[in-house]
Amino acid sequence: MKNIFCGLGVALITPFTPGGKGAVDFGTLRHLINYVIDGGANFLCVLGSTAETPCLSADERRSVKDFAVETAGGRVPILLGMGGNDTRALTEEIESFDFDGVDGILSVVPYYNKPSQLGIYEHFKCVAEAAAHRAGLPVVVYNVPGRTGVNMQAATTLRLAREVDNIVAVKEASGSVAQMETIVQNAPDGFGVLSGDDSLACEFIGRGGCGVISVVGNAIPQTFSTMVRAALDGRSSEAAAINEELQELYRLAFADGNPAGIKALLNAKALCANCLRLPLTPATAETADGLRVFAHFS
Prior knowledge:
Blueprint: E1 7-11, H1 26-38, E2 43-46, H2 58-72, E3 78-81, H3 87-96, E4 104-108, H4 117-135, E5 139-143, H5 145-148, H6 154-163, E6 167-172, H7 177-186, E7 192-195, H8 201-206, E8 211-214, H9 221-232, H10 236-245, H11 247-255, H12 260-268, H13 285-291
Parallel strand pairs: 1-2, 1-8, 2-3, 3-4, 4-5, 5-6, 6-7, 7-8
Helix pairs in contact: 1-2, 3-4, 4-6, 6-7, 9-10, 11-12, 11-13
């Protein structure tokens, strides 16, 4: 199965209305979706960790998915976050979910219970089979040991890439360039490696990656897409110059956790309210002040 998730993918935030029980702000979400697509995003990642998905109800998740599909209107592919640490419950959810308008599933390594490499392999094999059976959808597996507590080793990713036809890419957020290179050099033709770290996107692409699923792309899609396109086109000096200019932004965007930083920057750009759902809290005043320097970037 062909991987269509290349270039700049934006991991969309979920904007909330102000107040202790703020609702999803669909008006702002519409504006943000149009803003990132017009800014050059190649695909949207909906209901990932940046979207505060664990803090959304099942009804809210369905509503956000439907709204994103409708607003995007087929202009870019939709990659839908759908993960969990109970394989049976997750596959049952996939079997019953309405995937109308969705082009693929992003599924994270099971968290908290820290499975073995064999457990990770068997989990994703079940997820992929359910996705293929339900809607013929491709799966992008997501390795983020800082959140899950376990690293999906390159050998496990490569086994999935070779043995499961509809696992088409990995979002690699281990922070290890060496692990990423091992996957790129040994993966079957067409298997994609996406950076899960904004700060490593240039280096990943330069070493054979196919793109990035970005957090900062919510706020500066034009700048970030220009960098990604330059890297993919082999214009390494141009990409490196932009990347260097963004180093402090990368640091500040994650200094107080995600999406606290990116929501502070979006707020500084008057693109959304600076509202998160507990247990997440807004960025500190110091971080927010530092991020305001980048409010003029588009």
